[in-house]
Specification:
Elements: H1 6-14, H2 17-20, E1 51-62, E2 70-82, E3 88-90, E4 100-104, E5 108-115, E6 123-126, E7 147-153, E8 159-165, H3 171-177, E9 181-186, H4 188-193, E10 201-209, H5 223-228, E11 234-237, E12 240-241, E13 244-248, E14 251-258, E15 265-269, E16 275-280, E17 283-291, E18 294-296, E19 301-307, E20 316-321, H6 331-336, E21 359-368, E22 398-405, E23 409-412, E24 427-429, E25 433-440, E26 450-454, E27 460-465, H7 471-474, E28 489-492, E29 497-503, E30 509-515, H8 518-523, E31 526-532
Parallel strand pairs: 1-5, 4-9, 10-14, 13-21, 22-25, 24-31
Antiparallel strand pairs: 1-2, 3-4, 5-7, 6-8, 8-9, 10-11, 11-12, 14-19, 15-18, 15-20, 16-17, 16-19, 20-21, 22-23, 25-29, 26-28, 26-30, 27-29, 30-31
The chain binds CU-O-CU linkage and copper (II) ion (2 copies).
């Protein structure tokens, strides 16, 4: 371990600590709209949308805890125009979460983002395969009062995608303040699978938040939060605390998004019933898989098929996050535990609910009997399997090391984010299949989970490895990885190496890849890669 003195540590944080300390969300003046004259408006006259939506990023209040309402930021949605069926907005009642966008594969969609916040923002469609200027790169962030017009065709498979802000160094704050929503895509393959639908298709967005005595959200309160990632001590589901769901005696489709900034969940039923997983980030699996628990890093999604058909009316069940280790053993363990920093100097504000603690996420109550049920399909979809042998760089996978430079800077291959920067080893060719390997390069100082996310593609996980000294820690989560399907985000435990296969198709241009621990992303653990035509 490097020898750091308390003074060095303070010095490193001295410059930025002030800027990082944000307590609550103070009201920002709502900027008046400059109507559609505000640039950049990128409406394309050749593009004839099937549906036209508007999302306004705005500052509002909502009641979350008993007592005072809470200032939040929220996407307000509206359908401006629609031809035919298939796209709709579904509002989640009593929630800061944005509307759920329902769309069909093949549809052309136009979305107007209006920025009614007091600072720049931009939306990214997490998991969607869209052109680079529709992907919400921070260089397209719009100023208060401006609008941005997204035009894209839905090319993804049926699945659970989502959207959230992506402005430079403010993604963590804005998402935490409430800006996020689900983007659900359906297609004919999904229709054939005949999954539970309507009220039996339930979104479950899991997030953690911290509140002060006045019920306001509290974000980063010390430099450690920025370094490690922010953890709240209240678990919210769909924006609500103590979430309870009443169900009938039949099968449900639960769409679970880990929408937290940096918390990892180890999902399990409290009575030991295994989880039946039917989809991952990029949509339906080929067939259902069973897990005793599912490990879900920030940004990842999983769909669970859950049958309450054999349960008694009146019975209850809890979805929990089980205990695990390895997610924050480094900085905190090494530095705090080592006693170098002295008692509360860094103020470990989140010790109440560290990453890896066991807690309850939600309660399910069976409250009525129904006779109809839908069986679990044996086949869900077809997945084209990539083969490492077909990758143009099979001998020499593109390697990305996640590490720490100096004491405090997370890096990707020794680099941090540059708005327009692309290095030579970050240039790929359109219409090629590549192998990428991420390595969580850990020393005693920086043992953390990094959920790595790639824009523009869905990938397949073909191999994972971990250093022997982390094997024990890995065993606390490893059986919960679901690598059978398409992924856009993959969590790496300390020292873990993950090999991925992906094909770059349709859209040349610059896309991002980054850690989806949003505080890491905001600190620069993010880079561009360029798809060359
Ligand atoms: Cu969900 Cu670039 O992020
Ligand atoms: Cu993304
Ligand atoms: Cu990270």
């Amino acid at each position: 371990m490097q020898n750091i003195t308390r003074r060095d540590f303070l010095k490193l944080f001295g410059v930025s600590a002030g800027a990082l300390a944000i307590t609550g969300l103070t009201g920002c003046g709502v900027a008046p709209f400059l109507e559609e004259t505000a640039q950049p408006v990128r409406a394309n006259s050749d593009f004839v949308p099937d549906v036209e939506l508007q999302l306004t990023a705005t500052d509002t209040q909502t009641s979350i805890l008993p007592g005072q309402p809470t200032h939040v930021w929220k996407y307000d949605g509206a359908v401006l125009a629609t031809r035919g069926d298939g796209t709709s907005l579904q509002t989640i009642p009593n929630s800061y979460l944005g509307p759920i966008i329902h769309a069909k594969r093949g549809q052309k969609i136009r979305i107007h983002l209006k920025n009614a916040l007091g600072e720049p923002t931009i939306i990214h469609w997490h998991g969607l395969h869209v052109p680079p200027d529709m992907d919400g790169h921070p260089r397209y962030a719009i100023q208060p009062g401006q609008a941005y017009v997204y035009d894209f065709e839905i090319r993804n498979r049926a699945g659970t995608y989502w959207f959230h802000p992506h402005p430079h160094q403010r993604t963590g704050f804005q998402a935490y303040a409430g800006l996020a929503g689900l983007f659900l895509i359906s297609d004919s393959e999904e229709t054939e699978a005949n999954l539970p639908s309507g009220e039996f298709d339930v979104p479950l967005v899991i997030q953690d938040r911290a509140f002060n005595a006045a019920n306001e959200l509290v974000y980063i309160t010390n430099p450690m939060d920025q370094m490690m990632g922010f953890l709240g001590d209240r678990i919210l589901v769909n924006g609500r605390p103590d979430f309870a769901l009443n169900v009938a005696t039949r099968a449900y489709r639960f769409r679970v998004l880990n929408g937290s900034n940096s918390r990892v969940y180890k999902l399990a039923w409290d009575d030991g019933t295994p989880l039946t997983v039917i989809a991952t980030d990029g949509g339906l699996l080929e067939k259902p898989v069973r897990r005793n628990y599912v490990t879900l890093g920030p940004g990842e999604r999983v769909e669970l098929w859950t049958d309450f058909g054999n349960r008694r009316v009146g019975s209850e069940l809890k979805l929990k996050s089980l205990a695990f280790s390895g997610a924050e053993s480094g900085m905190m363990g090494g530095m705090m535990g080592g006693g170098m920093m002295g008692g509360g100097m860094m103020g470990s504000s989140n010790s109440a609910l560290p990453n890896g603690a066991e807690f309850s996420i939600l309660r399910v109550k069976v409250d009525r009997e129904v006779k109809d049920n839908t069986p679990l399909p044996e086949r869900l979809s077809t997945i084209q399997r990539y083969r490492l042998d077909d990758a143009i760089n099979r001998q020499n996978p593109r390697a990305f090391g996640i590490g720490m430079q100096g004491m405090m800077t997370w890096t990707l291959n020794g680099r941090v984010f540059e708005m327009e920067g692309v290095a030579n080893d970050e240039i790929v060719k359109l219409n090629t299949l590549e192998a990428w390997e991420f390595a969580n390069q850990t020393n005693s100082m920086d043992q953390m989970v990094h959920p790595m996310h790639i824009h523009g593609v869905q990938f397949q996980v073909v191999e994972r490895q971990i250093a022997p000294q982390f094997q024990t820690v890995w065993e606390t989560v490893r059986a919960g990885y679901v690598d059978e399907g398409w992924k856009d985000t993959v969590a790496l435990w300390p020292s873990e190496r993950v090999k991925l296969l992906m094909r770059f198709e349709d859209f040349p241009g610059m896309f991002l890849y980054h850690c989806h621990n949003l505080e890491h992303e905001d600190q620069g653990l993010m880079r561009n890669y360029l798809i060359q035509a």
